[in-house]
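Sequence of Gentisate 1,2-dioxygenase (Novosphingobium ovatum).
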Amino acid sequence: MEPGEAQQAALRALYAEMDPAHLAPLWESLSQLVRPVPAPGMVAHRWEYAPTRDYLMRAGDLISAEQAERRVLILENPVLRGTAAITTSLYAGLQLILPGEIAPCHRHSQCALRFVMEGEGAYTSVDGEKAVMRPFDLVLTPNWQWHDHGNDTDHPMIWLDGLDIPIVRLFDTTFAEHYDGKVHPETAPAGVSQAVYGRNLRPLDGSVAARRPAERPLFHYPYADWRDALGRMAAMAQIDPHVGHALEFLNPADGGPIMPTISAHVRLLPAGFQTLARRSSDAMVFVVVEGEGTICIDGVDMPLAPRDLVAVPSWAKVELQASSELVLFAYSDKAAQQKLGLYREKCE
Ligand code: GTQ
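Predicted 3D structure, token representation.
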């Protein structure tokens, strides 16, 4: 048929007729759906730590961890309000646990990581083994493992929760259970998994000490260890022009990412260092651990100061600049993208 007004009118009439049957013409949206590069459903955003923390502490005056189950402020992407998403595929929240509090035991099909923002001595218990946390430690609660949190110290503890809530929601595979009791009984001494799996070693096959799930034995990556490794790397290794000195957290069982859906890494940029532009298909959540600098996302500068949090969309052009030695933590859905054959990056 000749393109023209008559055709347009006939098509519009057809669309109107088929609409009640829940049918739509692909040719009207094909170029949006199948496109040369991603059009992210999120925007870049920065949360300054101090004001965010103030809201969280105010929540702490009004509701207990037990009452809330988890006392968390969700960091919602400005264009994804109401969906508990910081990026299109990932969740971030800041969790507060006050002295004497317990966040009761549950398990769910979502994977979670904790990255400690402040306080020390509180714990997450995973299947009955406590990881006692210090600032900037990384602790995992892989999916379907029982976990409760507690604070036996005399000061508040705040950590970042990173979960794959939107991914699990996409698949409609959200399952959860409450434990019968507030806390899981202790199954092993605090820290034993980190001690035996955290140093390129593991209990001899079949020994009674090999009690963790074989495919995911380690769940505590202390700051003291990763910071030492990153510092030595910076002193000895060649620096990458696009990412700086960067180390990924590994699952010692297979050398792969920490969890099936989530990857995490840390970076160090020496004072004065400026990265070349890089894009990657994994949207990222950054946490500033140390130092000051600037992150330039698609040409827009955002200042970076300790404990600030920044969401970066997929395929955004990212350039980092360190005013002083800059240390960053980041997590993303790269682990899931790589399994699905979707992951890409481009360096300029
Ligand atoms: O600590 O188990 O931020 O289940 C959101 C959901 C934390 C947790 C969150 C959760 C948790």
